[in-house]
Write a structure and sequence with these properties.
Number of domains: 1
Shape: globular
Mean pLDDT: 90
Structural class: mainly alpha
Strand order of the largest sheet: 1-2
Strand content: under 5%
Number of helices: 3
Radius of gyration: 14 Å
Low-confidence stretches: none
Distance between the termini: 21 Å
Number of strands: 2
Helix content: 25-40%
Length: 97
């Protein structure tokens, strides 16, 4: 049984800037929460899903949330936003982990 931890992808500098741009492009610079679609400027970084200790800097785990929904995702009432992120990413990347 292998108990070693899987190395998470963490980018820096220009690589993270390129990823941020790619995520903005795949989400059309808009919050992905159904019914919202607020503009998210390129200066705002994407949201990791899952977040916390399982987050990785990969396109399949990043989506855009407006400030309001990002704050809601981090609150005790964040489950609907988490689910919207999961649904959106699963639609874009079927079979993602």
């Amino acid at each position: 049984m292998d108990l070693s931890k899987r190395k998470r992808v963490r980018l820096k500098g220009k690589a993270v800037a390129r990823l941020n741009e790619a995520i903005h492009e795949h989400d059309n610079y808009r919050c992905i929460v159904p019914g919202c679609r607020r503009y998210v400027p390129i200066g705002e970084k994407w949201h990791h899903e899952p977040c916390g200790s399982d987050k990785e800097d990969v396109i399949e785990k990043g989506c855009l949330l407006c400030y309001k929904h990002h704050q809601q995702r981090e609150s005790k009432d964040g489950e609907p936003i988490r689910q919207a992120c999961e649904d959106h990413l699963n639609e874009l990347y079927p079979g993602r982990r």
